[in-house]
Each structure stands twice: as C-alpha cells, then as structure tokens.
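Re-run requested by the PI after the first attempt was lost when the workstation crashed. Everything re-entered from the original request form. Ligand of interest: magnesium ion.
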Amino acid sequence: MANAIEVRGLVKRYGDVVAVAGVDLTIAEGEVFALLGPNGAGKTTTVEILEGYRQRDAGSVSVLGFDPAEASRAYKERIGIVLQETAIEPELTVDEALDIYGSLYPRRRPTDEIVEIVGLGEKRRARVKTLSGGQKRRLELALGIVGDPDLVFLDEPTTGFDPSARRQAWTIIDNLRSLGKTILLTTHYMDEAQNLADRVAVIAGGRIIAEGTPETLGGRRDATIVRFRLADVAPDRLPLTPSRADGGVVEIESVDPTRDLHTLTDWALANGIELEDLEVRRPSLEDVYLRLTGEATS
Amino acid sequence: MRRPSTFRLVRIQTGYQWKLFWRNPVAAFFTILFPVMMFLIFTVIFGNERIDELGVTVAQFYAPALGMFAAVSATYTNLGISTAYQRDFGVLKRIRGTPLPPWIYMAGKILSAIAVAFIGVAIMLGLGVALYGLRLDPTTLPALVVSFVVGSAAFSALGLLVAAVAPSGNAASAITNATLLPLAFFSGVFIPPQAETPRWIEFIGDVFPLKHFNEAFFAPFDPRRNDLAFEWGHLAYLALWGLVGGYLAIRWFRWELPQGTGSSRRRSTRR
Ligand SMILES: Nc1ncnc2c1ncn2[C@@H]1O[C@H](COP(=O)(O)OP(=O)(O)OP(=O)(O)O)[C@@H](O)[C@H]1O
Ligand SMILES: [Mg+2]
C-alpha cells in the first residue's frame, strides 16, 4: 500500500523553543493514526505543518504526494481539516455553513447526508451562535468531511464532547475508515486512541518517543501490572521495585508475573502483611502512556 | 469531479458576505441609518436654505455628501472591522484550509461591500429626491457611476489595509472610526466648505482621500456645471490611494492571529 504521509526529520522552532525536534512519521493510505502526547508536546505544530498552515524549518514532508508548504489548491481539495481551535461564522445556520463550505470542493457530500452523519439533523436551521460547544464541534467535524477528502486531519476532535457524542464521533471516524480514508488524529483520550487507531505514536518534547499499535505500544503486550494496597508499610520494604507507589497504592510492572507474584506473596505471608485489593492485569494504554511520558520528562 | 467555476465561487462568496452583513444589525444600522439620520437632522436644523458658497440648497449638498459617507462606511469601516473580527474568530484560518483561492474570498467581501454601498447611496439619493426635489442632470450620470465605483473600490482597499494592520477586531473598529469621523469634518462632508476654512483643515482634507471622493461625487449634483462633471484629478488621486492601500494590504495581510494575542474564540460583539 502507498503511503499517505511521509515525514522525515521534521523540525520547527519558535525562537528558542524547539516545538518539533526531528519527527519521522509514515502513515499508510487507509490507516487511522493517533498522535498522543502531553500539552505542548508538538502535536498541533506537526499537524499544522502537514496541513500547510505553518512552514517547517527542516525536514522533508510529503502528503498524498504533495508538499504541503506549497499550499496548492489541488492539495486542499483532497484534505479535510478539523483544527484544535477555530470557529465558524456565528451568524450562519448549520445548513448554510455546510452549503458554503461544500461549494468549494469538486467532490462534495450532500448537506442532507452530512447533517445526519454528525447528528445535527434537528439543528439545520439554527444559527451557529446558538449551538452548544459540543454541537459546534460536531459542525466543525462536518465541515472537515464535507469535501469528501481522502485524508482527514483531526486535532483533538472530541474534546468537549459528552460520552455519547464521543461514541457518535467514533462511529463517524470508523465510517470514514471503512470508506478507505486516511485519518491523522490527535487526542488526550486513551480510550479514543485504543478504539480508533490502527497505530499510535507518543510525542513528547517535540520527539516521537514510542510508536506501535495500541496493543503493543511501549512493550505493552509483554508487560503485566501487579497492583495492590499497602496499609502502614513503607514501600521500600517490598522485595520488588514498584513502578508507582503513592497514597498506599503500589503498582509493580512485571515481565515475569508468575515468578514476581510468588516472590511477593511469599514476602507478604512471611511478614504477615495483607496485599489488599490485589489484582494482576495487562497495563492499559494509559498506563503505558503515563510511563513513557513520565520517563521522557524526568 | 469538476472544480467549481470561478464565477460560481465569486457569486456564492458575495452572497454569503451579503447575508452576514445584514445579519449584523449594528453594522447595518451605522452604515445605512446613521447617514440618513444625519441627513434629516441637517436639513431640519439648517432648513433647506441656499448655501451661498456652493450655490446649492442644503439638501442638494448633503444628499450626495452623506450618500458618499454611507458608501465609505459600507466599504472602509465595514470591511476593516468585519475582516479583523473574522481573523479573531479563526474564520480566515478556516478559509485558508479550504481550496478556495484567497483572492476569491476577498473579492466576495469587496463586491458585497460595494453592493451595500450602492444601497446606502440609493436610499440617500432617493430620500433627497422624494423630500427635497434633489436634482441630477442625466448627462452627468456616468460621472456619478464612475465616482461611486472608483471611490468604493479605493475605500474597500483601505478597509482591508486597516484589517491587515489592526491587531484585533476591536482595534480595527477604533481605527476606522477614529479616522473616518474626524476626516468627515475636515473634508467638507458634515460641514459644507466655508469661504474661510482654516488652511490646515484644507491641507488635511487635500492629503487624505475622503475629500476627493466627496468632490468627485458632488460634481454631478452641482447645478452650476454644464459639462459631464467628471472630476478626473480627484478620481486619479483617489485611485492612487486605493492602489497603494491595496498593495500594502496584500503585503501585510495575515490570515491568523499571531499566537499569544488572544483566543480565536472571541466574543461576537462588533463595533
Ligand atoms: N505560533 C507559535 N509561537 C510560539 N510558540 C509556539 C507556537 N506554536 C506552538 N508553540 C510552542 O510549541 C510547543 C508545541 O506546541 P503545540 O501547540 O504543537 O503543542 P500540542 O502538542 O498541540 O499541545 P496541546 O495538547 O496543548 O494542544 C509549545 O511549547 C508551544 O508553546
Ligand atoms: Mg494541540
């Protein structure tokens, strides 16, 4: 399969701040790719360079065979953009906004279809200024796909959504996937990445620090977390080094859980200590993410 | 898979800006009703006497002057403020992410503003004819049309220049009002030219473009003229301001707020 996005050694500086410090990305056509990372990690900067809003300082970028820095009309006709922070003319109605923006593209999806897809069927004649925050965001999502793009950029598309709206958005994105569209999204919600993404990358301090499928990211498949509560016992007395110990909750990451559990329960029995709420589980994507970004910033 | 034609895009963009203008009651009020109110106030205060310096009646002077003022509000003030607010809101950034060529977006804004200017002029002149028997020699109609087009286009360019240099919509609002209103006093718009206008006022009027628009626009209504009433000198000077303003607007225009100057989700208050 051809690659929709190829980025090599991407660098962007703002004065002394290096917002993007040498990012490589390869995203295949038809892939849903999620960019995760803490605030200020460089997600929006990276995405806006790919969209053609910002000029890079170094590196090579090819998106659908175009160099976004040239911002050509043919390129814009094939991408859809949902920015992290934007607005729509408050005095337009939902229908008008979709008609006006739809009219700009050679291929367009009918307004009737789009309003149903994003669940704004009841609000078609409402002015944008009267929509709730989540409804506005849905309209932005609608404007991002009204031109039937091959590639969609979604910068935190569901921030501010209620849980059911988030599920709805996931369904929309899933449908785009089944139409063969390529999607690059950023998110702070791990369940979103887990549910939607074929692959994820974690970016911190302008660098990609881990990349993989949601299942394998950061060695996730091979790790196990042993978690329990310890009352009145200092964690440094434990026979194993915890990966986390605060508020009486201890977590131990293990690549050999059978042996480690044995060591642990032996120690507990010998010392007459109760391991309250003991559980053994695979680390969640969030566990892995927190470990990776914690390591990157410490 | 066919690209929408340029003509169609310009038409849709113009219609869209036109719609937005009329949905903003404050802007519509200041552009259209404010000059009408001034016209009625002036003609009531002064009565419809003859102004000796000009050899015309009060209405024959104020109808074109305030019609021209409405055209300048519709182009200069309205484009300056609305474009800067659209940048604050992030609307301009969104447009830049679509295949719409930027010049078509601007063309839509300018054509819509000129259409609004036309409405403002038509209402003022219609009122002059209906209430005070305003007279216009039909042979000077071409001069009137040319003055309208040159003036509206020049002030559209200057409005976009304000939008280009203003850091925010609020600033653009302050800049347009703080320039246009004083200039209207110095340019013989609100106060007819007197025999003994101080030199410095004349000088300011001569430098800035408003007086030139005013004089070119008044000429067709001047009953003492028996030519076609084209004021080529004033029109050329006006066009020069427009061209330089337009050039600088294009050079300095920004489609996004620089970071750290405020949120793009600003309040929707205008003016
Ligand atoms: N226009 C700009 N001018 C100056 N600095 C900038 C600009 N844009 C981004 N930065 C800086 O670059 C870094 C990366 O910012 P970016 O917006 O890409 O982060 P992000 O990963 O999208 O964060 P968030 O999750 O908060 O949206 C930050 O330190 C930010 O302050
Ligand atoms: Mg961001």
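Saved to the shared folder this time. Chain B has one domain: 21-260.
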